[in-house]
Write a structure and sequence with these properties.
By secondary structure, this protein is α/β, with parallel strands linked by helices. The strands form 2 sheets. A 7-stranded parallel sheet has the order 3-2-1-4-5-6-9, with helices on both faces. The protein has a two-stranded parallel ribbon with strand order 7-8. Helix 3 packs parallel to helix 4.
Length: about 240
């Protein structure tokens, strides 16, 4: 794909997978709008990237703010959503349903609302790409809530691909990826989990943000891909 004159919006572009995606697209020659909630964090993240990148501080859970943002952009070619949430995990018998609702509000609803709000702005044969997670695909105890959030997103991909055609709709489902998402856990817990994953995953390593960004970029570039959910998990789903 010739990325010259292509405009891409990346939601969640200030860290982790989103920032890795911004870097990839800018390096390819695209014009990128990186969106995040924290202006200072965004500005720091984009230092030294160069290329055609601008930033927008925006709470993607705010429908009115989304409408104002997309309404002022002009035409865009692709929308990539790398929003994540941390709530909703835990054994079902003790699962805090209020926390699960917050998990939906942090990941499910913002991606859905952003995609819907962006439709009038998106190029007719452009693309929308969601980010889900492996919890939608594997039956790990303690992840029923996370599976519900990510499974809800994945269940819509095929239908949206048909409804919105020729706009392409896809998703990437990551496994264990070394991103700031894990910083909420004690360093010893994170280190031990990553060690275990590195020993048991078929690829013998934990994923990096750029691994997932690579998969996201593939979905943008391959114009014969729609209605797909790519598993980028190092083989975790096979265990």
């Amino acid at each position: 794909m010739d990325w010259q004159n292509q405009k891409v919006v990346v939601l969640g572009g200030s860290s982790g997978i989103g920032l890795a995606m911004v870097k990839r697209l800018v390096a390819a020659g695209a014009s990128v709008v990186a969106v995040g909630r924290d202006r200072a964090k965004l500005d720091d993240a984009l230092i030294g990237i160069g290329g055609q990148v601008t930033s927008e501080a925006l709470d993607c859970a705010d429908r009115a703010a989304l409408g104002h943002f997309f309404g002022g952009l002009g035409r865009i070619d692709h929308l990539v959503m790398t929003l994540s949430g941390g709530e909703g995990a835990g054994p079902f018998a003790e699962l805090d349903l209020a926390a699960l609702r917050r998990g939906f509000e942090a990941k499910f609803w913002p991606q859905l609302e952003a995609a819907q709000t962006a439709l009038p702005t998106l190029r007719r044969d452009g693309s929308v790409t969601f980010l889900t997670a492996i919890s939608a695909r594997i039956a790990n105890p303690g992840t029923a809530g996370l599976g519900a959030i990510n499974g809800a997103l994945e269940s819509m991909i095929g239908t949206l691909a048909r409804e919105l055609a020729p706009l392409r709709v896809n998703a990437v489902s990551p496994g264990v990826i070394d991103t700031p998402w894990w910083d909420r856990f004690p360093a010893s817990v994170k280190s031990e989990l990553f060690r275990q994953q590195s020993e048991t995953l078929p690829v013998r390593r934990v994923g990096q943000a750029d691994d997932v960004a690579h998969a996201l970029q593939f979905l943008l570039e391959n114009t014969f891909m729609t209605g797909a959910v790519i598993e980028c998990d190092g083989g975790l789903r096979l265990l």
